[in-house]
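Hi, here's the filled form for the chain we discussed.

Project: internal
Contact: R.S.
Residues: 225
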Amino acid sequence: MKKTVVVLAAIVATILSLTGISQGTAQAAPPKTALGGGSGILVLKGGNTASACTVTAVGRPTSGQHRGRLIAITAGHCGKPGQVVLAENAQNRGAIGRIAYSWSDIDVAVITLDESRVRPVRTVGGVTINRISTAPVGFPTIVCKEGRTTGHTCGITWFSDGMAHYSQMCVIEGDSGSPVVVGNTLVGMVNAYYFVSCLGPETGTNMGTILRRLSSVGYGGFRVV
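And the returned structure, exactly as it came back:
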């Protein structure tokens, strides 16, 4: 799916000003921003532009070298390692994290989050995530998603190939990374659509594929928080 690009001239100026706090000036801690599967994010691309995407889930690995670290997952084409991430609904509060890993082969990225600025939530819009399943979904399961562009939509699953799924959910640019759920169970993320936005089939990476890759780089046993 193409990345939605937004212009951030005033926002970037605000962020830069936040990094130049003068000595001797007391600064109140910024309020924490609610973030979870379905939240909109902006990944700064340089200059005054950013790509708009959606968070798949927020949680912590329970094993590996990054055990306990608060992270978010999104689509890999949303950004590259080192790029700054903002919460779309709280842009003036500054960066909430940076992309740590991004893989083009499975189209998944990991964002390390600033815990002083983020409050994890399990419910965003019409989606609540209470657990994760690595079992591939198949026909005729109804899957749903929450995206920053099209919100809450559902559709029938056509099939899964073990790595990815294919469904009839409505998705368009900016929905990349959206959590794909069956009830309150996270089963995958949105990555792309075919042919025509909101009409063509949706496809995305299954959670089994995602969790195996996370484990390989020290984020094992990922759990939503």
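Let me know if anything looks off before we file it.
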